[in-house]
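Open question from group meeting: does this chain pack into something compact, or does most of it stay loose? Before anyone orders reagents, we agreed to write out a predicted structure and look at it together. Recording both the input and the output here so the notebook holds the full record.
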Amino acid sequence: MARWRFQAAIAVVVLTVVAVGVWMFLTAGRESTDDAQLDAHVTQLAARVSGTVSRVAVEDNQLVDAGTVLVELDPRDYQVAVEKARAELADAEASALAAQSGVPIVSTTSASNVTTARGGIAQAQSGVAAADKEVEAARARLTTAQAKLREAEANAARSARDVERWRGLLAKDEISRQQFDAATTTAEAQKAASDSARSQVVEAEAGIRVAESRLAQARAAEQQANAELATAETGPSQVAATKARAAAADAHVHQARATLAQAELNLQYATVKAPVRGIVSKKGINTGQVVQAGQPLLALVEIEQIWVTANFKETQLRSMKPGQRVTVDVDAFGGREFHGKVDSIAGATGARFSLLPPENATGNFVKVVQRVPVKIVLDAGQDPEHLLRPGMSVTPTVYTK
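Structure tokens returned:
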């Protein structure tokens, strides 16, 4: 009996050793943790414009496709803004067209004015030269008339003296009456010639005044022509100003187009659509509610891309690296197994990302094994029913060998 008990004890020890060896063989090259859960992108959708909610097209926990209308705001204010922006754009385009058409007109008119002004200057200068010659001619005629007047006055004075002498001789009967009458006639003729010469001097002086008046007019015309040329030569600056106004009108067109584009965007923003396929969650709005830009409306959980965030102990990362095969047991489905691979290992421990990281410089240090988040992506096509949800507990096993 004692021998049988001894043999039984030996058999139990052998079986235990064999079982431990088998377990160590089967678990060699594997790292597992139950500190893991499913993760996914959770998008918080907010209003991009303010307005009154006119329709909420979804319910909580509803599966929606990308592009599905979720919420509609009252669009009337934004439709009015679009129509106003279109009218302003049409007005800006018309103004720009008018400004552009004015550029060649101003350019042509400027060149024509310069040509006309230069022609007027040439004509005025010709008139000044002609008036100068006329003044010189009038002065020459005056000089001649004055010389003739002096000669005529001298002849008249001499004839008058002769008459006086001949009158005394006639009284003494030293000359005949006929000789005296001839002298008197000559004196009268000389006096008439003197009067005629004096009239010619007066006429020459009047001619000088007329010629000087024409010269003044010609010079005034020349000055006016110079002023017109100076005005015409400002044409390039006028053309530049016209082009600047045209450029400003074009800029106003671009500004109006940008305003219209913004108004159209605001009108589109009045309709909130799902950016991705997912499940609606945390719906916090109702029809008739007034929302502001940036106000959260609901959350959208993307279920097309689910991954595992597993917090492995730092001692388990010795042989772990991206690309290694992983099996994942999901607690919610009775240990249903999914397959995937290690995608990446976090750059720091979970404690470093906490709100209050531990401070080990206090002198009361107690060594605690840290955990490092490891991202595990699941192979595609394993969850066609979309049963996996972010936050579910899982147990991943990484095959490091």
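Observations to bring back to the group:
The CA atoms of residues 122 and 222 lie 8 Å apart.
The helical segments are 2-27, 76-171, 177-232, 235-269.
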